[in-house]
Specification:
- By secondary structure, the protein is mostly helical.
- It is built from four helices and no strands.
- The protein is globular and about 40 Å long.
């Protein structure tokens, strides 16, 4: 369920705000979204994996807090990010 190095680097390159950016809110939200997607797929096949379900809920909460932070700083960055990631349909 974790991301390998190549997937992380691809996400960083597609969401970074400048050349050396590896930890901005946009990158963190993108990584969390990818992990949430993978874990959701796992839980569809393994419905009794309750510890993974708890981890999924924690990740969703963390992503929600990060998105709230971005929205408080800049509405444009927020809308660009959710459109790019395709979340909150």
């Amino acid at each position: 369920m974790s991301l390998n190095t190549e997937e992380k680097q691809k996400l960083i390159n597609s969401h970074q705000t400048h050349g050396t950016d590896t930890g901005s809110v946009e990158v963190q939200v993108a990584m969390l979204s990818e992990r949430i997607t993978k874990l959701s797929g796992h839980l569809q096949n393994n419905s009794h994996d309750f510890s993974s379900r708890q981890g999924l809920l924690k990740m969703i909460g963390q992503r929600k807090r990060l998105l709230t932070y971005v929205r408080s700083k800049s509405e444009k960055r927020y809308t660009d990010l959710i459109n790019k990631l395709g979340i909150r349909g």
